[in-house]
Structures
1.
Amino acid sequence: MFVTVRRPYRQLTPEAVRAVMGRACDRAGLERRGAHRLRHALATEMLRAGASLPEVGQVLRHRSQLSTSLYAKVDQDADPHPAEAR
């Protein structure tokens, strides 16, 4: 999911991803968050926008539907009548 911006293109190490996320949070004046939090936010927003759990799993590249099923609770807790529809 995360690759270097210069050749040779290769995957970033987990440590490099943490460093990038930490610096981005620092620049934005936010508490440091990790890449997992970013993935969770993406999955949550996809579900709120109407994506199915299999679609979320595909984007997150989960190997098992069990991994994606953890987001079912987020989907069940979602407001069925968002403010824009009221």
2.
Amino acid sequence: MGLVLSTGAVVVTATAEEPPARQLAGAQDEPEAQPAEDRAALARTEQLRSEAVEVASDAIEQASAVRAEAEQAAVAPEVLAELDAATAELQAAITQVDVAPLTPTDALPDRERAASRSSVDREESALADEDGGSAATPSPGSSSAPSADPSALPTDPEAADATPTAEPEGPEAAEAAEAADGETTTVPDSGDPATAPLREALDRVTRAADAARASADQKRAEAAAAAAAAQAAADEAARVEAEKAAQRAAWKASLQGFANGRVPDSALCGVGFDSSVRLRCDAAEALEALDAAFTARFGHHLDVTDSYRSYAAQVACRANKGSLCARPGTSNHGMGIAVDVAGDVQSFGTAEHQWMRENAPAYDWTLPEWARAGGSKPEPWHWEYVG
């Protein structure tokens, strides 16, 4: 019995001393909780810095592409200068973040927010106790559990990943969506003073890039409009010229659309060796070629004294020379297909006249039968185009 009592005393004594031992263990664990929380916060801050630098680096790359396009579009130099200055400022801010020391103080905003969330949770729990009483205290076997204090959360990364997190709302949700799409151009404010200059520089780069892009778009639009206008003008000029060419081609073959002696000067053509000559265009081209051959043979040009003759000129000729001039409105001069030539050509039997008789037909010019020696009205000077 004594042995049993003695043993029981030992047991009772051991049981009574167990809570203090558990309290001691807790006291020994408490100092380690704070460094672990610091390490997690610092790791989070380091991650946020890395993400901020990555966003800024992407912005610099995009700004470089925008600048190249803007320069090609001939954007104003001051717009490019602002983009260059903003990009340089952002690059310097990236360097500052890279070299900035990482201390527990940098993580303070995150830790303060965590403490604030814990305080809110405790206040909500207290309110629930006041309203429902038993609702805040889970019964044995219930699946409900009290909210854990953030300082007691596991520090193991895998355990942290397994902890469900609330979906962000408001601006944080928009920034998270942008980051998920890979199109973010902003850096969230984590409270880290090292990233503050970077955020400001990034905003400046964004504004400068937007301005350069808008200016480049405007320049391209203006250039496209100018090119379209120039093309329209060129097309119109080509159309008008084509119409004129078609008209000249028609006039070259025939002037039957005009009355004899009523042909406008725009439907006639001249020759290079005599500015006073006006003929139907195909007749003028043929006379030009004939004169070149004649000049090569005799050393001087043909001396043309009359070519196209208007109706009024025909009336005057008839009045002055009588039958030597055709009745007004019937002369071949009135259709731009006849010339009168002076010099030795206007005399039968001369070398020049004979050369013309033999060579002019090769250029579709001829002395008509009635104008030849022995004809009904000999006129050695009168030559007609028969092409």
3.
Amino acid sequence: MLEVSILLDYYSNLLSDRQKEYLLEHFEEDLSLSEIGKKHSVSRQAVYDNIKRGIKILRDYEEKIGFYKRDLELLSELKELKNDFKLEKLEKIIEKNF
């Protein structure tokens, strides 16, 4: 899931060490639940539960904080500005975001 990988970039430091590690191993290193379980001497179910809980936490953070949404909106505004540059548009973007 691309969404989870992106949210990990934003919020991974807010997760528990275990959740962060399992999520990174699963979504970034493409390890299976069984491989992660063997590596950490825990059950596949324990890995699954931690990953599921971690994903929920990441989505909750995004819903409350909204860094990813904000960055997507800024990117859209900048692309629009690139296609039709006007100093006034740039000033509005700067004022809105900074």
4.
Amino acid sequence: MAQDIFEKIRKNRGPIGQFAKGVHGYFTFPKLEGEIGNKMTFRGKECLVWSVNNYLGLANHPEVRKADADAANQWGMAYPMGARMMTGQTSEHELLEQELSEFMQKEDTILLNFGYQGMVSAVDCLVDRNDVIVYDSESHACIMDGMRLHAGKRFVFQHNDMESFDKQMTRATRIAEQQNGGILVITEGVFGMAGDQGKIKEIVEFRKSGKYNFRLFVDDAHGFGTIGEKGMGAGEAQGVHEEIDVLFGTFAKSMASIGAFICSDEHIIEYMRYNMRSQMFAKSLPMPLVVGARKRLELLRTKPELKENLWTIANALQKGLIDAGFDIGGTNSPVTPVFMKGNLAEATNLTFDLRENYNIFCSIVIYPVVPKDVIMLRLIPTAAHTLEDVNYTIETFKKIKVKLDNGDYKAEELASVEIDK
């Protein structure tokens, strides 16, 4: 007799879900309330927030709020109805794609309803069973899920390790030649956990040398709007923007909205328009999101002070942490990780202390995302933060580091807390 799949689920809640009863509503699925900014409300108290990807501070920019409100008033959230291929096409959608193409200096652009689903479908769209994928080991979950749909071979290289990349490319080339297929290399512009940029320039050098033939797909969700002189991303910062064959960006980070896009050569984008299942069979991006994205892109393009303000905060935060003796890894983006030694219980108690006693809300990352006995606090500086926020955070981190080193967080619990259900 077949198993009852629901009974199987009841017995195995998953690697994170097994802790749900004790963490839901506090450490997972927390509610940050109020206007998006440097300070928001958590459990009825104002907290200094370092966990919102509002890089350029556009979430509550008056011009953005007005554009969103005017578009919602004019169009509502329903228009256009249907997928773009059928009844969901508008001039506004086309204009946004044209403006993104001009800003990103690529021939053409396709809008995506969501970044995650768009990436999954894009990977599936670009390769067939005879093609081979080579990807960085720390690629985002959306890339991993896209590769699950790939019926062909895939090889992973160790994170930003070019010796490992070389080895996997040799294997991939052999398979591709045997199957008369091609090779798609996938990496990220900025890795969202540790903040280090992908080694796009070094990967491109392998192709320029003639050693390997491949196409390069870069997910630059965190780099778009934040990295490079104009904000085009890590490729621009590394001087190889034109060498990126397919470039993914999202509206969910620097643009503080919903949606995403892919830029590439015109014939590639045309192919994707007619073959990306997540876009062909999904409702078109609602008009207020499209109009709002155009306003956000305008501000990103015409107000460089937004990015300058972001980097003022990011540089001050990162320099201050380093000067205070903290390990922030190899970040070369606004994403600021802080690595400490400690186990799961210590990580839990430390985070509780930060939120309840110091009113600082930041994300905590533990094993298996980072090695065992490593605690990573992930800070996202934005243009909405202040230097006072930076100074307070660094002074607070000094205090919690002393507590951690003294073993204060080894107690089973700091205090009881009623977690919302």
